[in-house]
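in:
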């Protein structure tokens, strides 16, 4: 009888421990790590040119390449797949996108199997930038290269043209149940420098903050390094251990979060009182915004590269970029009477990769909870 009582007590203790672990760890971590915070590859199959069900901007084009033309090969960052795939849809002949084995397959790490002769490639930021430097890709669509990527190109004797073709916001996001709706730029920097470690310090519910970072060389991490002025200090020691039990905060580009991943379990934060919607980005009110670029080698001899860049800067091209969900540069499309080289001037154009605007704080969303206004 005594043995039975001990056995029952052991079972009850085991159940109690598991229940406690579920509530304190599993539930918290489930809330902490949404699919958006994790390293998630884009579903390229949603954006295949010349497929009826693809989610592309079919706005039309007066630029129509023909099958016999020397067609520029396009690649880009995950967040800009809808843009350059829409370029192909509008400007390229059918049959120019080809696949290994004859049909698209996502049965591989990157979710693509484009053939070597396909005008559409997808290598994401790190491999895609290398491809344009090596010359296997003509045009790369992405953010400004990181200092390491720029040095790598320079070491190979490659000069690049960076032509700004649209605007995008760099955003921070949290789980939608987090009561914090916004933070200031200084609070964000303090979080990622380990100076603010608990949500209660910014008006949220008590609990450790888990700041998520991205892989080096990715477009979002390059932007974050610039925003943080190269000073990111993730929590270490006991703070690092306990931070994984808290609600996380992550960062990316606006359209990648809202249009591509489209995870309704997360919400974007206002920064300095301004919510990152297209109106605030276009008006220059959101404080962390910057250009994305069409990038190509300065010595690229294919004349259709320049033709395509000119089209991207035309009213037709800018209308297509808006239709994909991005924002055209303030003041409308740049003049098409200058060459791309005249507009950019050099491989390192003076425009910063992000801009902290000096506009008064405004908010198009409900009042912020803690330190956001």
């Amino acid at each position: 009888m005594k043995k039975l009582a001990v056995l029952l007590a052991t079972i009850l203790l085991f159940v109690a421990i598991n229940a406690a672990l579920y509530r304190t760890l599993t539930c918290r971590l489930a809330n902490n790590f949404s699919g958006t915070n994790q390293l998630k590859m884009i579903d390229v199959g949603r954006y295949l040119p010349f497929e009826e069900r693809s989610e592309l901007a079919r706005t039309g084009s007066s630029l129509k390449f023909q099958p016999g033309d020397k067609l520029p090969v396009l690649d880009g960052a995950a967040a800009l797949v809808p843009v350059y795939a829409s370029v192909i849809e509008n400007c390229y002949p059918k049959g120019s996108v080809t696949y290994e084995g004859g049909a698209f397959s996502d049965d591989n790490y990157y979710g693509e199997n484009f053939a070597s002769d396909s005008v559409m490639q997808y290598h994401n930021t790190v491999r895609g930038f290398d491809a344009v430097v090596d010359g296997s890709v003509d045009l790369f669509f992405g953010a400004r290269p990181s200092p390491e990527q720029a040095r790598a190109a320079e070491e190979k004797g490659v000069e690049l043209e960076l032509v700004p073709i649209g605007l995008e916001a760099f955003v921070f996001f949290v789980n939608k149940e987090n009561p914090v709706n916004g933070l200031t730029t200084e609070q964000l920097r303090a979080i990622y420098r380990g100076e603010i470690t608990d949500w209660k310090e910014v008006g949220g519910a008590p609990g450790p903050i888990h700041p998520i970072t991205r892989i080096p060389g990715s477009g979002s991490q390059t932007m974050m390094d610039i925003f943080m002025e190269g000073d990111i200090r993730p929590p270490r020691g006991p703070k690092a251990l306990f931070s994984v039990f808290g609600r996380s905060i992550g960062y990316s580009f606006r359209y990648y979060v809202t249009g591509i991943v489209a995870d309704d379990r997360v919400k974007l934060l206002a920064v300095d009182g301004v919510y990152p919607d297209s109106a605030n980005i276009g008006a220059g009110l959101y404080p962390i915004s910057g250009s994305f670029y069409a990038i190509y080698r300065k010595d690229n001899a294919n004349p259709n590269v320049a033709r395509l860049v000119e089209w991207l800067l035309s009213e037709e091209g800018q209308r297509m970029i808006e239709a994909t969900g991005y924002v055209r540069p303030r003041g409308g499309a740049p003049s098409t009477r200058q060459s791309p080289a005249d507009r950019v001037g050099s491989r390192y154009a003076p425009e910063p990769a992000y801009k902290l605007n000096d506009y008064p704080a405004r908010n198009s969303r409900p009042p912020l909870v803690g330190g956001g206004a």
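note: The longest strand covers residues 160-175.
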